[in-house]
Amino acid sequence: MRTKRPFLLCLLACGLAMGASASSAKSPARSTGKAALATCPSQPQHDRRFAEPAPAYPPESIERREEGAAVLGFTVRADGLVEPGSVKITESSGFESLDAAAVKVLEARRYTPACRDGIAVEAVVTDRVRFAIDSPPTNNPYRPAQHPGYPVSAVRLGAEGAVTVTFVVGPDGYVKADTLVITESGGELFDYAVMRTAPNWYFEPARQAGIAVEHAHEFRVVFELRKPPAPPATASPPNSP
Q1: Which of 33, 37, 113, 141 has a Cα-to-Cα distance from 2 of 20 to 30 A?
Q2: To 5 degrees, how large is the angle CA 188–CA 166–CA 150?
Q3: Last residue of a domain, one of 74, 106, 132
Q4: In this structure, how many other beta carbons lie within 10 angstroms of the beta carbon of residue 131?
Q5: Which residue range(s) make up the domain with 203?
């Protein structure tokens, strides 16, 4: 089964990439005193190296056909672990069993910590855990996929294009790199930008009977230069009598 979801990307002509970031409220920086990190995200990032299976669906919730999404806030420490006891439900799924399962999975997650001036610090993060008994892969608005940057060479050439790519999303929600196939080319520059970035894309994985499964997915990425605004119309002077 394959799902199709349009993915429109309109980037500035300067070609700046829109970085992925967890939607979060920043906490005051607190240095660890450790050596500077090689990478320095402004907010904690869910690292694929620490990917875990999708949250287990409570059996009693499957029996009762309970579905929903819980939004949670929590603190990620400077070592990348979630601070014990910090996970709080900010938006309930509507079911206590699903909320409890969401808290349990987030307490066990590990992140690449945020940093300030190259030093790891703790920060407050917001994330979502979705439970759907039978569903395709779904975008998580709190963990947006990293978008390809507009190739600088394409900006200089004034080039635009679109790339359609298919792939398999694994049970952990990440794209399986060896399944990437471009089904509609946008040209070498745009194809390369998508193929380089797509292996880091994350989705809430597909489920069948509540169990996370592999699922084929399709994305269309549109590269479009922002057009300069039209000059304002000038009013004609009134005719003299």
Answers
A1: 141
A2: 40
A3: 132
A4: 27
A5: 1-20+145-226
- CATH number of the domain enclosing 11: 3.30.2420.10
Token code pair at residue 209: 């009977």
Residue 91 pairs in a beta bridge with 71
Looking at the structure, do residues 38 and 126 belong to the same domain, yes or no?
yes
For 222, other C-beta atoms within 10 Å of its C-beta total 17
Q: Is the entire prediction scored with pTM above 0.90? A: no
Q: What is the pLDDT of residues 151-188, one digit of tens each?
A: 999 999 999 999 999 999 999 999 999 999 999 999 99
Average pLDDT over the chain reads 83
pLDDT tens digits, 172-231: 999 999 999 999 999 999 999 999 999 989 999 999 999 999 999 998 999 999 877 767
Strands 114-116 and 119-121 turn out to be antiparallel
Task: Write out the DSSP string of 136-181.
Answer: --B--TTSPPPPPPPPHHHHHHT--EEEEEEEEE-TTSBB-GGG-E
The DSSP secondary-structure symbol of 199 reads G
